[in-house]
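step: validate -> pass
step: tokenize input -> pass
step: predict -> running
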Amino acid sequence: MLRLASLAVLILLVCGATSGCAQRVDIAFEQATLFNRDTEWSRAAEGKDVEAILSFVADDAIFFPPDGPMLRGKEIIRKFWSELAETPNFFLSREATDAVVSSAGDIGYTHGIALVTRKDEEGNTDTERTKYVTIWKKRPNGSWQVVVDIWNSNEPQRGVTATPPETSVEVPRARFAVQLGAFLKRPSAEALAKRISSRYQRETLVAPWEVNGRTVYRVRILVETEAEAESLSARIGREQKLKTWIVTIP
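step: predict -> pass
step: emit ->
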């Protein structure tokens, strides 16, 4: 027992002499934590809750919105989100696809996809598919905060026709979606989306939409062609006993 006590004292002395024994970072745990943090931020953004959105953002954060100037600092970002939240018939669906954390466990990034849907005065909808990368920094209290956010569209700039270089590779665009259902509670939609994504290895989104003043959450699988949509719709309907719809993405 005396030897063990002496060994413990020796370890403490060595740690003190070397500015402390560094703890190993559980990277898998931190990545899961960061992924969940991004998901929480997405829910705040989809709900257009400006103060909730900003609670994830560092005071000195920098945002890079598409087709606009850089936004530096929390107050400028607050103005940007306030104007966006007040935009009528604007809906956002945002889902992280991965989270990566540094070996030190103090900085990381997430990336994912989003659907931005707008509806004009005549009721016509326009859905734009986008992608994003967000850089996060861990605060001393252990929570993650956004320090950099950048996003842009998967679609070519409207009104501009560009000739791609010969070495470019055309990226397929999802023009159809198989809709599996619409739920009043988001967790129910997310549970179905997770199950379908795992079973069929397909990009599955939960897309909120307002109907008669209520928000419903639609589960959709994005596909490139109508033929692919029809085949997948029939397969899921047969195997999962679900009623499905094929919708066109403008």
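step: describe -> DSSP finds six helices and ten strands in the chain.
step: cleanup -> pass
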